[in-house]
Amino acid sequence: MKQIDVCLTPELLHLHAMDNTIVIVADVFRATSCMVTAFAYGVDSIIPVATIDECQLWQERGYLAAAERNARKVDGFELDNSPFTYMQEMIRGEKVAMTTTNGTYAITRSRAAVKVLVGSFLNLEAIARYLRSEPYDVLVLCAGWKGKVNLEDTLFAGALVDRLKSHFMTAEDSALMAWRLYQQGKDNLLSYLANSSHIRRLQRLGIQRDITYCLQHDLYDVIPVLRGNSLVSMEL
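Structure for Probable 2-phosphosulfolactate phosphatase, as requested:
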């Protein structure tokens, strides 16, 4: 039987095998939620890069550029890390370069996998439906916060385990733990996350609507997939 596992932070990724595995990268607040939204609103492609300098190089080549550090937009770039930024007509058909504190780093660390997909609550069922049809094991990579575990990405992992539990065996305790946390919090994720570190961090910036938006389930039927060095929208 196929297996599903959860890596709670990129710092633990070296402990997980990625051969014969599809990796789902989740950075719920807010990078992967932004990426899913961008493709839902017609962006052509997104290049995830680890550093601000790399992002600036792509900007100089004509790409729209998004740079975030510590939940704030970096000066000199067109786009930030709010999903509402990616609902603008200006992004339709455009190529975007993006760097964030956690999410793009996690994506760039996952290239050895069979496929790398971008997951969020916004495209949860699209991801689950696709994985049910694939023959590979699954590893959910939680982007976390600067190497540390965070609650929202772990809850996303638990939600995906919940959707796949009849098709996949939970490989390790991290998957079981994530699933049990999601069972506890699923009826009101916003309340369940109220005292989490990233919620507090984002609330200080006054972006409550981003938090509420990113916790919505199944808004979009899109799956960003890494092809070469770019994310593109998978044909479903």
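The first helix runs from residue 31 to 40.
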